[in-house]
Amino acid sequence: MTVHKGRGIAAIEYPTGMNQNGDPSQAWIKVKPDGRIDVFAGTSDIGNGSKTIQSQIVAETIGVPYEWITYDNSNTDSSPVCTGTFASRATFVAGMAVKKAAERVRERILDIAGKELEIDPADLDIVDGEVIAKGSPQTKISVPDVAAAATWGHGELITGAGAQLKPYAAIVEPETGKVDLPPHSAISYASCAAEVEVDDETGEVRVTRLVQCFDVGRAINPTLVEGQIEGGAIQGLGLGVLETSYPYYPGMEHRGGQFGSYLAPGMEDLPVMDTVLIENPSVDGPYGAKGIGEMANNPQPPAIATAVHDAVGVWVTELPITPERVLRALQRKAAGEGEPTRKGKLIVYDEELSLAAVAHPDAPVRLVVDA
Amino acid sequence: MNLNVNGRTHEIESPPLTTLLDVLREELGVHSPKVGCEQGGCGACTVLVDGAPRRSCLLPVAALDGAEITTVEGLGAAEHLEPVQAAFVHHYAAQCGFCTSGLLMAATAYIANGGTDDREAIAEALGGHVCRCTGYVKIVDAVAAAARGDEFDLSVTAAGLFTTTMSGGAA
Amino acid sequence: MKAVGARVPRYDGVAHVTGRTVFVEDVEIPGVAWVKALRSPHHHATITKLDTRPAEQMKGVRAVVTAADVPLNVYGHLSALGIPGDEPLLADAEVRYLGQPIAVVAADDEQTAQAAVDAIEIEFEERPALFDVRKAFDPDAPQIHQWGNWYPHFEAGMDRRQIRKGDIDAAFAQADVIVQGVYRPAAIEQLPLETQVCQVVPEANGRLTIYSCTQALYFSMGVVAAHLQQPLNKFKFVGGTVGGGFGGKVDTATETLCSLLALKSGRPTKWRWTREEEFLCSSTRAPWHMEMADAVTKDGWILGRRMITLHDSGAYARFSPYGVTKHAFHHTGAYTIPNLHFDGWCVFTNRTPTSAMRGFGVTSVSFATETHLSRIAEELGIDPFELRLKNANRIGDTSPNGVVYTDPSTVPTILAIADHLGHELPADYRTMTSEPRSDGLLPEHLVAQVGNPEDH
After folding, report:
1. Which end of chain B has fewer beta carbons closer than 10 Å to its terminal beta carbon, N or C?
2. Would you say the pTM of this structure is higher than 0.90?
3. pLDDT in tens, A182-228
4. Does domain B78-148 have CATH number 1.10.150.120?
5. What is the rounded distance in angstroms from the CA atom of residue A168 to the CA atom of residue C359?
6. What is residue B163's three-state secondary structure?
7. At C82, phi and psi to the nearest 5?
8. How far lies A234's CA from each of A265, B130, C365, in Å?
9. Mutation choice for A interface testing from C149, C182, C203, C208 by most A CBs within 10 A
10. Domain B2-74, CATH
11. Interface check C121 vs A, CB under 8 A
């Protein structure tokens, strides 16, 4: 028995927001008489932290402390449309909706503060809960005092609504796939290196280290971004070496109905993980943010497959890379099989898995390659 | 039969083969233990039975007459968090929060039994708990920090142990 | 204090660690009736008899709902985008996957609900099933879907998603080497710790309050409203706090049926899927079959790519056409490949319908593209970092469907990994940026694209 070490890399990209866009998110905000801020949005928090992120965006945009924000996404009577928490859209698309609503609120606060201070609102700024005159910071009024003046003096409810919608990008040439508009809100990028140990007797692949770099645009909350990346990495590890609903796909047998018969990654599978964040801001996202939640499980499987090849010299291109698949590949290699077919400049791997090998000879679909 | 839950004794009316999980949630209104699988496979329902972590979905309540049960409700309330709870907040060890109660109880037992901040020992002790969100990194960070007796500033979350941030990018 | 960029604690962090976060099932509703489903025991069968009367007559049973009770039984996940629906809320006449719901029961407790499900009289005539997407096009393949064995409703009535770019034949003719491979990532479970769950309360004013674990409150409300043929103000969705989703909780798996049972019985209803149902009956990530051939030069330029993709949609379309389109748009990965020929099909099989999961549509092609590039690097004897940096997309390059990249970071993320690992690179690679290519970095095959990106 020998344990072989290997390393592989992968680089990926992933769109933010629904493919082809057309997915609105909306929000509205009201200010209480003491200046505290109530945000209403319809974005489900599935653990990704959108309650936190959107509260941070509102606090930053208005210029008040994070602790002043209450965030209500609890029901559709009080919250406006949000298409949902998927497609890596909760920070960018729904975040833009709360940002635009907060910009309206900020304008109203500045306007009323201008009346109170008898200063042109354009000459005012809001910093840490206080409206201050630019260049003359001793001239100021607190946001709570502005809210009180609005409520009891001006008879106004300070409120603001915002909506984010990039219009639907239609496929105008179905034959080529050409679209009339960009079909995403942004694109994020990531690279990953995986290091593995492969036991050539048991076939077991152990992922020992993942080094990952993500362009997140802007980390609205670095801790939450790390959480997305780390959580995604373990799901990517699961995709690579552990998980399958149909262990003998396309066969239907051995489908597991409980945790004991489905290999979800556990704490003992945790590799060493190094994460590098790059902030290459998006053109029009909230504070430059891009969405990275989903892509976080995309680069590990190919990096792991490449690392396995680096370790033991076999390509396993059906996932997950189970001990059985590794051992079968090693057996074929030992028998001198499993090499790609070479015809002139054409090199064909995995012929036995292909449509051409499995389908009826008269079936119309094939990958046709003219060498 | 009687059950002591978080320091209060309750007379239990559910049939004897009712699981402890159902008694806690349905009869006593103790909601922190979660129904994740009812198969003993995920750990979301873990509570302490006389100090030991147990899957409450597998325990018929009749076997627990007189036992002392501790759930997350028996740890610290919001203003008086136990160190392990504070560690979970500071290290951002909970994302969706559904597995968190079970992990907190397992971590409480681990630390009470003298567990250290050794990451492998933590993974072994808490290994049967499934968390689909976090990738476990920050859970291990939190349990290790609590085991060390770290102090926690809850106005911020901890910087990732292994993260580097670089600005700029494209150009 | 700046809020953006700060490591502020989670808004709900303390609630999570004190057990105070309220998930759907933590809402106590007095008198709530339990829901259970009668599900198909077959992969593919005709229903020859369905009699729910034995269940309806049982003590403690409050309502039984079948397809006949649903105002609009067939409504597609993508119907709001004008794409026709194919999947019945409850099976009517035919079942196409193991676990497909046929009838639902609401009863006073879980045991009674299950006993009532077991009492329903049902008979089937089994039919041939199809499981291998590669056999879906065979002349003798079992026909398993009313639309045929693959989705026929892409734009202009096309039966596949196509991408065509540049001159693919010229690219393959010019290539020094063509590398071809097959990539097959698996179906997996979304596996949130909280299973599919909802509770529905019929209110005195005729509205329904729906406690839902959906990832998409308004989307799910639209689905329920469509099935029930009611305006949106009939419903109040309560949720937004979800015990994990990962894509599976966009499906709106329980809300409509609980609403129908609540309306029919006049009682609040609750349906929490068992873990076994979650594993065996909920959507999975799709299995994909991808075949890829890249035309490359000796020095590592990728001139062109031919690719076919068969997406295993399972028994119904759900979000699969969307996933295949997204897949097509991103099938070159993080690279600029100027000549493309892509065909992707949504193929139906008799397995649980597949649906969205983290990375939907792209996780598959990231695996295929990146493993394929590693193979190309190996075949050419080129450093895998250098091969990727060379072909990395740059500012001004265009995507498979002709969209200009404005802020790519492929180059800096690869360089950061190389740096972190101490992997040595030649100077011209080490100093590479995402700026448009020029001089020696602008190979002949990209000149036209850079000069006139709209044409590519």
Report:
1. C
2. yes
3. 999 999 999 999 999 999 999 999 999 999 999 999 999 999 999 99
4. yes
5. 20
6. strand
7. 85, 10
8. 7, 12, 19
9. C182
10. 3.10.20.30
11. no
